[in-house]
Amino acid sequence: NAGVTQTPKFRILKIGQSMTLQCTQDMNHNYMYWYRQDPGMGLKLIYYSVGAGITDKGEVPNGYNVSRSTTEDFPLRLELAAPSQTSVYFCASSTTQLRAGIQYFGAGTRLSVL
Amino acid sequence: GENVEQHPSTLSVQEGDSAVIKCTYSDSASNYFPWYKQELGKRPQLIIDIRSNVGEKKDQRIAVTLNKTAKHFSLHITETQPEDSAVYFCAASTGGFKTIFGAGTRLFVKA
Question: Which of A70, A109, B41, B92 could disulfide-pair with B25, CB 3.0 to 4.6 Å?
Answer without folding.
Answer: B92
